[in-house]
Amino acid sequence: MKRCLCGLTAIILLAALGGCASAPTSSYRITAPFETEAPPRPAIHFDDAAHAEQMVLFAYGLLGTGYQFGGRNPEAGLDCSGMVSYIVEQVSGKRLPHNAAQIAAQTRPISRHALQPGDLVFFNTLNRPYSHMGIYLGEGRFIHAPNSRGKVRIEQLANRYFANRFDGARTLQPDS
Predict the structure, then answer these.
(1) Does the global pTM surpass 0.85?
(2) Helix spans in the chain (H)
(3) Which residues are catalytic?
């Protein structure tokens, strides 16, 4: 009887391990922030209006930082959402997700004409909404971590590439 139980235990253990090694059967689909099934989270916002200005100043200090997909700190490199979430956390202590679409879903939308320095700009660069982002600096410029071939740099919103892919603007300023 004991031998039978050991064999049964081994079969169950192998089946469980095999399940961990196999690909998941359900498909995962990246959706726009408004198509999520989870209830919307309250908007993340700054507690101090000066944080937006501090964010811009901090971002200037990251110019030239190398790109690293998934990067969330300047020493290892930054990607677009990693750069924004890193700056927001350093300036305000607020922790944003490390995903542009999730950040868009958790921040308050504003019109392009209402953009102020420290607001967030979003772009559709991978044929899906909110796939890239940066921080608006003012005067039609924004700072972002572009891709593996670039470093943190400043661009113009009017640049044809970004103008054609502009997906919206968001703010971390509280609703007044």
Answers:
(1) no
(2) 2-21, 50-60, 80-92, 100-105, 160-165
(3) 80, 132, 144
- Is residue 79 situated within a structural domain? yes
Q: What one-character DSSP code corresponds to residue 66?
A: B
Contact 63, 134 (CB under 8 A): no
Give Cα separations from 129 to 1, 45, 145, 146, 160 (angstroms).
60, 22, 18, 16, 18
Residue 94: give the domain boundaries: 50-171
CATH of the domain at 109: 3.90.1720.10
Tens place of pLDDT for every residue, the chain, 176 residues?
444 444 444 444 333 333 333 333 333 333 444 444 444 566 888 999 899 999 999 999 999 999 999 999 999 999 999 999 999 999 999 999 999 999 999 999 999 999 999 999 999 999 999 999 999 999 999 999 999 889 999 999 999 999 999 999 999 998 76
